[in-house]
Amino acid sequence: MIREFSAGALVIRFMQNQWWTAVIEPGREGEPEERKNVLALPKGNVDKGEKPLETAVREVREETGVSARPVTKLGDIKYVYSRRWADNARIFKVVTFFLMRYQSGKIGDIPENMKHEVRRAFWLPLDEAARTLSYSGEKQMAKKAVEYLASHPDDFDGK
Questions:
Q1: Are residues 60 and 78 in contact, defined by beta-carbon separation less than 8 angstroms?
Q2: Measured in whole angstroms, how far is the alpha carbon of residue 155 from the centre of its chain?
Q3: Angle at 101 between CA 96 and CA 105, to 5 degrees
Q4: Given this model, what pLDDT does residue 127 score?
Q5: Which helix H or strand E contains 4, and what residues bound it?
Q6: Rounded Cα gap, residues 56 and 72, in angstroms
Q7: What CATH superfamily is the domain 2-156?
Q8: Closest of 128, 120, 146 to residue 63, by C-alpha
Q9: Low-confidence residues of the chain: pLDDT under 70
Q10: Where are any strands of DSSP class E within 16-142?
Q11: What pTM was estimated for this model as a whole?
Q12: Which pLDDT value is given to residue 30?
């Protein structure tokens, strides 16, 4: 079985008296209908010579338009899928997720060369993420982020 490794992040930002997270709608116009209502966290394959944290920082910037600084590792999601677009190979995938804090940039300001991967990016209230994200593993990461914020209030004083 082929193994794949990816990394991504749940980026948080405090505004309008609440925490928000950066989410994406993967894909592009003209894709099959089943891809149009997917809501996900920014993530992507770990490139050769790259560490998962470096991948996560890069993917956040490429897929959302914002820069973020790492806070902590949230966890790993592991699953198996069949690669339908190529050879139907079975893939064992591990995705490492980090909690990150917004630093700069405008959400949705996606580089032109990434618009084939991401339809749009926007801020979603963090308290809605666990029920709104499309993938169960990512829903778990949203729950872990909420738990982390609650258990580390001193780290986020003054927001």
A1: no
A2: 22
A3: 110
A4: 96
A5: strand 2-15
A6: 12
A7: Nucleoside Triphosphate Pyrophosphohydrolase (3.90.79.10)
A8: 120
A9: 28-36, 157-159
A10: 18-26, 43-45, 66-82, 90-105, 118-125
A11: 0.91
A12: 56
